[in-house]
């Protein structure tokens, strides 16, 4: 969990800010980008070298505990459900359900961090610090603002994790049929699983970004007053402003972000699983 938190903070933060900007439905003319490279180049030249790292601290604070909870829940549920569905064998249904349930815990921790991070990342953001953003959002919109996109986040992440885990386990059966510790297979399977799941769930991510950022230019162009809430409203707004292509804004940045994130996550997870299991077996005869 801590290792993926570090990727999301240092490496992933740059790609995440590009994704947030590229998913904007009514961007400022100075923040219109045609590609990930153009977005990064323009951002560094006009806003400074450190701008892509905005929100790094809140991401790292949330990602560590969120992913620790996530994998602990996944491993426990996967074993229990596999024993129920297919005793002694790997069950894809169990993997999908375990991944989906683990997401409930993960997102409960990460959702407030996501709201703060994405508000800091928007072009011309009025917020200058994490604490300042949290105080302003709480004072002007209330505590529920930190969980306004929670149902959308779950609606996105439950299918994301189901696709992610099932794809990973299917690839492991092909690349690593004996299920031994094999770093190359864990990295490849993790990266491909992350890319497939990310691309498939991009429309939901665009809606989540809109709910998190409450993009002023987009909402005012449709004469929407107050705060946008609910996945159905977000879907309608995205379609009105961008049509079907609007649901796939930022898909390239999202896939680029998820591939190393899931590759690192699985390789580190499998390493510690192997290391701890090996240590437990070595100690067993002595006890």
UniProtKB/TrEMBL annotation:
<dbReference type="InterPro" id="IPR018108">
    <property type="entry name" value="MCP_transmembrane"/>
</dbReference>
<keyword id="KW-0408">Iron</keyword>
<keyword id="KW-0410">Iron transport</keyword>
<dbReference type="InterPro" id="IPR023395">
    <property type="entry name" value="MCP_dom_sf"/>
</dbReference>
<dbReference type="GO" id="GO:0015093">
    <property type="term" value="F:ferrous iron transmembrane transporter activity"/>
</dbReference>
<feature type="repeat" description="Solcar">
    <location>
        <begin position="181"/>
        <end position="275"/>
    </location>
</feature>
<keyword id="KW-1133">Transmembrane helix</keyword>
<keyword id="KW-0812">Transmembrane</keyword>
<dbReference type="GO" id="GO:0048250">
    <property type="term" value="P:iron import into the mitochondrion"/>
</dbReference>
<dbReference type="Pfam" id="PF00153">
    <property type="entry name" value="Mito_carr"/>
</dbReference>
<feature type="repeat" description="Solcar">
    <location>
        <begin position="90"/>
        <end position="174"/>
    </location>
</feature>
<feature type="repeat" description="Solcar">
    <location>
        <begin position="1"/>
        <end position="80"/>
    </location>
</feature>
<comment type="similarity">
    <text>Belongs to the mitochondrial carrier (TC 2.A.29) family.</text>
</comment>
<keyword id="KW-0813">Transport</keyword>
<keyword id="KW-0406">Ion transport</keyword>
<keyword id="KW-0496">Mitochondrion</keyword>
<comment type="function">
    <text>Mitochondrial iron transporter that specifically mediates iron uptake in developing erythroid cells, thereby playing an essential role in heme biosynthesis.</text>
</comment>
<keyword id="KW-0472">Membrane</keyword>
<protein>
    <recommendedName>
        <fullName>Mitoferrin-1</fullName>
    </recommendedName>
</protein>
<dbReference type="GO" id="GO:0031966">
    <property type="term" value="C:mitochondrial membrane"/>
</dbReference>
């Amino acid at each position: 969990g801590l290792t993926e938190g570090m990727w999301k903070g240092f490496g992933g933060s740059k790609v995440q800010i590009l994704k947030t900007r590229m998913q904007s439905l009514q961007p400022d003319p100075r923040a219109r980008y045609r590609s990930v490279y153009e977005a990064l180049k323009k951002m560094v030249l006009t806003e400074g070298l450190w701008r892509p790292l905005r929100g790094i601290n809140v991401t790292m604070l949330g990602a560590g505990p969120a992913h620790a909870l996530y994998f602990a829940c996944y491993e426990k549920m996967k074993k229990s459900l596999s024993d129920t569905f297919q005793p002694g064998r790997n069950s894809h249904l169990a993997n999908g359900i375990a991944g989906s349930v683990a997401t409930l815990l993960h997102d409960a921790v990460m959702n407030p961090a996501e709201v703060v991070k994405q508000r800091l990342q928007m072009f011309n953001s009025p917020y200058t610090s994490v604490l300042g953003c949290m105080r302003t959002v709480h004072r002007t919109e209330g505590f529920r603002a930190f969980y306004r996109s929670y149902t959308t986040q779950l609606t996105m992440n439950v299918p994301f994790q189901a696709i992610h885990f099932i794809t990973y386990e299917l690839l492991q059966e092909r690349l690593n049929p004996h299920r031994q510790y094999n770093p190359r297979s864990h990295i490849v399977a993790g990266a491909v699983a992350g890319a497939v799941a990310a691309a498939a769930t991009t429309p939901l991510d665009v809606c989540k970004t809109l709910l998190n950022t409450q993009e002023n230019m987009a909402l005012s162009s449709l004469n929407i007053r107050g705060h946008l809430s609910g996945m159905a409203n977000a879907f309608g707004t995205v379609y009105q402003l961008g049509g079907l292509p609007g649901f796939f804004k930022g898909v390239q940045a999202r896939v680029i972000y998820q591939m190393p994130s899931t590759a690192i996550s699985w390789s580190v997870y499998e390493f510690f699983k192997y290391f701890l299991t090996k240590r437990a077996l070595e100690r067993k005869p002595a006890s």
